Amino acid sequence: MRAYRVAYDGRPYHGFQRQPDVDTVEGRLRSALVRLGVCERGDGLPERYAAAGRTDAGVSARAQTVAFDAPAWLSPAAFNGELPDDIRVWASADVPDGFHATHDAAERTYTYYLYAPTDTDRPGHRPVDDERWADAVDALAGTHDFHNLTSDDTGTERTVDIDWTRDGQFLVVRLTAGGFCRQLVRRLVSLAATVADGSAQLSKVDRILSPESVSGPDGVPPAPPEPLVLTDVRYPDVAFSRDEDAAADARTVFEHRRANAHTTARVADHITDGL
Q1: For the segment 73-97, what is each residue's pLDDT rounded down to a tens digit?
Q2: pLDDT per residue as tens digits for the range 20-65
Q3: Which of 136, 209, 212, 261 has CA 20 to 30 A from 79's CA?
Q4: Judging by DSSP bridges, how do beta strands 157-167 and 170-177 pair with one another?
Q5: What is the pLDDT of residues 217-257, one digit of tens each?
Q6: Residue 142's beta-bridge partner residues?
């Protein structure tokens, strides 16, 4: 068996997991493996295939991990030869026969880039108070039953570590846990953000973490998916080897996308400043 690290820009895709009639990251991986002759045409996947997680539509990844029975010649660079530019495999590791990319993950880390201006002259954005943000994050971190922050009915008790830094107009939020309920990361960020900008009081955190169900207008909608990145998945005793050619190719692809994003932002600045 071999495990592969996969980076992707999730914005054009309807999530990671394969779905009928829509474009997904896993669907693109499978199509590449069919063209490479690693799995058969139809609906199947390679033997013992599993993935670390199922990112939502619009969510990106730096270290999504898939593992399956792979031929020795299937390097990350060879894999990339049949993938679109916005999906890049950049590292691999030989793993034991019983390895499972989902169940054997000890920790998953997500990073959310929250646009959180502190000044009051940003139209459409309430100013964020970092102290209120810190209070909300401190209350949400640790072990809780997050049943009011997910649509899952089971497995809602989790231990989540949250650390953050301010980077200009952004709060860079890193959340780590053994696993996450559906949309938990985005709802945690959303709840903390409403406390930070004064839309909600800190007491709302206690109400959301209480055993009583909260829904409707008192519930917490998920934060937008586009600023979220699956940053790391840690497996004990698995050492990934970077494919330097594949990693260099991935850096080139995402550097080009960064340049395009900066250009788009400058154009938007120019228009906004003139209105």
Answers
A1: 999 999 999 999 999 999 999 999 9
A2: 889 999 999 999 999 999 987 767 788 899 999 999 999 999 999 9
A3: 261
A4: antiparallel
A5: 778 999 999 999 999 999 999 999 999 999 999 999 999 99
A6: 160
Does the reported pTM lie above 0.90?
Answer: yes
- The single residue listed with the structure tokens 């154009």 is 267
Record the tokens describing residue 17, joined without a space. 């997991």
**Residue closest to 176 by CA, chosen among 161, 157, 187:** 161
Mean local confidence (pLDDT), 91-108: 96
For the chain, the farthest-separated pair of C-alpha atoms sits apart, in whole angstroms, at: 61
Q: What percent of the chain has pLDDT over 90?
A: 87
Q: For the stretch 164-201, what's the b/e string if a residue is b when 16 or more beta carbons lie within 10 angstroms of its beta carbon?
A: beeeeeebbbbbbbeebbbbbbbbbbbbbbbbbbeebe
SS in 3 state form for the chain? CEEEEEEECCCCCCCCCCCCCCCCHHHHHHHHHHHCCCCCCCCCCCCCCEECCCCCCCCEEEEEEEEECCCCCCCHHHHHCCCCCCEEEEEEEECCCCCCCCCCCCEEEEEEEEECCCCCCCCCCCCCCHHHHHHHHHHHCEEEECHHHCCCCCCCEEEEEEEEEEECCEEEEEEEECCCCCCHHHHHHHHHHHHHCCCCCCHHHHHHCCCCCCCHHHCCCCCCCCCEEEEEEECCCCCCEECHHHHHHHHHHHHHHHHHHHHHHHHHHHHHHCC
Which positions are catalytic?
56
